[in-house]
Please model this.
Amino acid sequence: MKKKILSVLALLFLILLIWIQWNWKHLSSFPSIISSFYAKEFCSCYFVMELSEEQCHNFARQWVPTSEFQLNKEEKSVTVRGLGRTNTAIYLSETNGCGFKNDL
Model:
C-alpha cells in the first residue's frame, strides 16, 4: 500500500515538472505582471483621468501586494516593485495615456 502511494506521488510530481517545463515562459513572466499592471493603471488613473492618489491606489489595487511605490509628479512617472520586479510607467500624452519606460 505504501509503495502504491509513493508511486502515485512520484507520477504526480513528474507530471508537475513536465507541466512547469512546458509552461515556463508564461510562469516566468508572471512576477513582472504585478508591478507593470499596478504602475500602468495608477499612471493612467492619476495623470490621464486626474483622480486623487487614494482613488488611484484603490483603482490599481490587486490581490498580490506590491513592495515599493514611487510617484514622480515632475517627470509624470510611476515606479512600482512587486515580486522582485520593478516597472516604471510614464505619462506620454492625453491621447496616448501612459506607457512603459523600457518600451520607448
In short: The first helix runs from residue 2 to 22.
